[in-house]
Amino acid sequence: ANLALTGEAGNLVVNADSIVLLRGGSLTAETTAGDRGNITINSKDIVIQNNSRITTNAQRTATGGNITIN
User: Fold this and answer.
1) Which of 28, 52, 59, 65 has its CA 20 to 30 A from that of 8?
2) 29-50 pLDDT tens trace
3) Measured in whole angstroms, how far is the alpha carbon of residue 15 from the centre of its chain?
4) Which H, E and C letters describe the chain, residue by residue?
5) What b/e sequence results for 47-67 when a residue is b if at least 16 CB atoms lie within 10 Å of its CB, and e otherwise?
6) pTM for the full predicted model
């Protein structure tokens, strides 16, 4: 889902035994303000194939946009 709203974004936290991104699948967080827009993944098994991606994008005054994999 794409949401084009203003204000501070949230953080994306994924807790799963296994994560599979195939055929262009993605986890994405974007923000333009604050320290949000971070992605934290807690998983034992992560598979990313065929142009799939995990990305963040912090612009303007944002200080977030971090990816943490545990």
Assistant:
1) 52
2) 888 777 778 889 999 999 999 9
3) 13
4) CCCCCCCCCCCEEEECCEEEECCCCEEEEEECCCCCCCEEEECCEEEECCCCEEEEEECCCCCCCCEEEC
5) eeeeeeebebebeeebebbee
6) 0.76
